[in-house]
Amino acid sequence: MFKLLGKACWLTALQSVKLAILLPISFTVASTAAYAAGDLLIAPTRVVLDGRRGTEVILNNIGNEEATYRITLELRRMNAQGRLDDVDAEKATDQEKSALDVIRYAPRRVTLPPNQPQSIRIGLQPNEALPDGEYRAHMLFRAIPKATPVDAAASPTEGLKIQIIPIYGISIPVIVRKGNVSATAALANVRIGKDNEGPTLEFDMNRSGNRSLFGEIHVTKPGVSEPLHVSKGIAIYPEISRRVVSIPLSPELAAQVRGDIVISYYEAPEAGGGLISQVRAVLP
Amino acid sequence: MLNKTKFALLGVVAAAAMASTGAQAATQTASAEVDIVAAVQLAQNDGLDFGVVASSGTAGTVVLPTASNTRVCSAGVTCVGTALRGRFTVSGATSGYVVAINVPATTTLTSGGNNMVLTLAPSMTSFSSTGAPQIFFVGGSLAVGANQAAGTYTGSYNVSADYQ
What we know:
By secondary structure, chain A is mainly β. Chain A is about 10% helix and about 50% strand. Chain A has four helices and 19 strands. In chain A, the strands form five sheets. Chain A has a five-stranded mixed β-sheet. In chain A, strands 2-4-10-8 form a four-stranded antiparallel β-sheet. In chain A, strands 16-15-18-19 form a four-stranded antiparallel β-sheet, with no helix packed on it. In chain A, strand 15 (about 215-220) and strand 16 (about 230-235) form a beta hairpin. The N and C termini of chain A lie far apart (about 50 Å). Chain B folds into two domains: about 1-35, no CATH class; about 40-165, Immunoglobulin-like (Sandwich), CATH 2.60.40. The relative contact order of chain B is 0.21. Chain B starts with 5 loop residues before the first strand and ends with a strand. Helix content of chain B is about 10%, strand content about 50%. The radius of gyration of chain B is 22 Å and the shape is elongated. Chain B has one helix at about 15-30, and strands at about 5-10, 35-40, 40-45, 50-55, 60-65, 70-75, 80, 85-90, 100, 105-110, 115-120, 125-130, 135-145, 150-164. Chains A and B meet through strand 1, helix 2, strand 2, strand 4 and strand 10 of A and strand 1, helix 1, strand 2, strand 3 and strand 4 of B. Strand 2 (about 40-45) of chain A pairs antiparallel with strand 3 (about 40-45) of chain B, so a sheet runs across the interface.
């Protein structure tokens, strides 16, 4: 059942007294880093809507001036390396278009003074005809750069002056699950690879089912509970059935992973932390 | 949501203090709901700045590497002033979390009817958070045409820290 967020839900939310404690932020950063107009904080970093209720994401202006932020829904597709590639609107699949139709959010543009948080409410648009499944878009929060007047006096009469404006922001997945969805994963083909920075520990993650999986990778030695390495926030989305997971190996970690190792994929702690899949391998 | 009673404590207290603040609030108000949510911040520390470049009859390139602020100007272009890589800091990402950095491959800078193509490169395409702030840089390579017209060339580029 796809139960949707109506006015009643918002009213309930309005009556609740909620303390949003945003973790973890190092306060030493605030004192050392120079903040520019348009800097931002987003919490949480992932949203899953299973139809029972809507939610909200907090956007805070951590810059030193007033800034206007735009909030958009973007389509991204996971590739075989686990990266999220942009999808052109005209190349979107029906599934992706449905995600854009079904996710409602407001406001879409906010102007905030420094250190002013704002809730972005996220809910669902009713669509009983939508097939069971998982629908996903990526919510992108970014500041609209202020128009800087070109200083005519500073323009070189000879030579090229270059003014490049970054439009920077943070994107988080917004996932909608409707009806019966399930998935399983299996890990295989553990190997040593390399990327631009050096050696990596690589393996394939195979997925089956009609939803994504999300969780943590733990690399352990057999019989030792303390993991050698933990990678959190590792997803495999329904548009792919296989991806490579690549973990950079420091010289120390490279030495430790030799021989028998166990790689485990656990659900995120907030989702129960259950074991999804595990593989044991011997590395040269 | 403006009339909602909400206390958002944003990075002003240490983690231990946060936990105790939350617990106290929960006991004072029977109906209180405490959400502990992971937050992430993105800040720009330096803008990408190629300085001033003079063109000539020969086309050339100006390269600003991600590894340093030392600009490399090929034959055909003369560089004046100082240059800076784009510098950004991601803070607050939970330790162990994998965050991707997304920067487009190219962007076009225009000045009136003239343009130049800027090829962009981030210093990393993803990182695994240690819990400490993570700095990354954006460099690039600017293609300057033969007798590229003088003027102020403006353009923009997108940078995002993406959670999967």
